[in-house]
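dumping this here before i forget
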Amino acid sequence: MGYVALYRKFRPPVFEDVKGQDHIVTTLKNQIKSDRVGHAYLFCGTRGTGKTSVAKILARAVNCEHPVDGSPCGECDMCKEIAAGNSMNVIEIDAASNNGVDNVREIIDEVSYSPTRGKKKVYIIDEVHMLSTGAFNALLKTLEEPPSYVMFILATTEVQKLPITILSRCQRYDFHRITIDTIEARLREVVDAEGIKVEDRALRYVAKTADGSMRDSLSLLDQCIAFNYGEELTYDKVLNVLGAVDTEVFSRLFSSLYTQDINGALTLLSDIVIQGRELSQFVNDFIWYLRNLMLVQASDQMEDVIDISSDNLVSLKEQATSADTDTILRYIRIFSELSSQIRYASQKRILIEITLIKMCKPQMDNSEGAFEDRVRILEQHDQENAKLLKGIQTGQVAVASAGMPSGAQARPPKEKKVLDRAVPDDIKAVVASWNKLLSRMDNPMRTYLQRARLSLGNNDTLQIVLDNKQLAEKYSKGESRDELQTFFDETVGKHIEFETRYIEPQQVFEENFVNLQAINFDIVTEDEKEM
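structure:
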């Protein structure tokens, strides 16, 4: 006999061997033990989750002469016939290639003949959503009231395409995606039975790549074993076969994007292409890395949820401490969109390069997320400059102290002048010369406030209205508010009472605030007098 693919060789023969679908297996076994088997079943779920396998086990179980705890015994003549594919009692139909009215009418004609052996005649219709409308209509009556010896098992990956008239006539069972742990345990059973040495990390990666499909995991494992036949299957070998990328590369890519290092990001992508990695898989794996980064940042107790090694978890936590949550969420959104675009694209590399350039140069993007990224970078530069300036000032103080004669005392700090509070005319002057005031501001304040709108609040208060909630909160308290207050005091010469307000995108400014900038005050400022 020729070689048999692993997913066929290790197809579960009894209910107990079905992995990850306990809620379905228990129900079906109880129905068989209590002799309460239905006449029409609908198995729904993504590919490779066990729909066809369970259908075949159920077909054997209802015809088994000596079922064991609801499962087929595998020893009686009926079990052996069905397992070998020689039984006339179990008819498997592929609806993708037999989807017409005539095909269904053939089924209806055959239904009238009772089985010569066994208890039930079972029709397994795979990918039933592929049937035409006429075929569905022809099947309705028979599906609702079949003879007592007939059972229908319908399987589909796209249950939303089935008519409600079909759904209402079947017992529906939803097959879940199988967990990574369950798939890994099954793969370990398979490689042990085959006598193949495989690293745990390698099996874990294959299980994760299968995306909840047991059949896909066995097919991927088969591919990796064939490529490295006769050798131990290691994690690195699996990455090479599947065109995947190690986690350390994703860490470097995130750092390049976060620091807007365009050269680093594009060079890394070039290396990935030269190594022959699959770019769609690369994008999807990076999304998974970002997801892990987000979860680590959300909680310290995420070891069971995040599927990576302990070494990688340590480096992931280090990177999470210096990352911004909103930025990570934005990256996930951008790469998720890229994943859907790249699937059928002929120039995948170019699409990824465009995305990386836009992310490293947020000034090219007018979205709110890109604006927040620009704000974050400016804040980082501002903090770095402040540290540098503080270091310089500290050094100057130390030098001055060293040269000061003994007994001399440092000059006391200059007292801050108490200013008169601004009156309405002063507020109007600020509004009239707002653009000039902006030009005098240092960055990043100038960048933050250039989109501000001005209004008048109660008690002669200047309202600074911003369409970004983070900025409105930033200048409502703390050092940033003090910095802006000092700027007004020193520039205007009066104490300007101000408050920052946030306006939501759906709100109209003129309906909620007094638009001072639309009023012509005809005020001559001190700067204009000097000119």
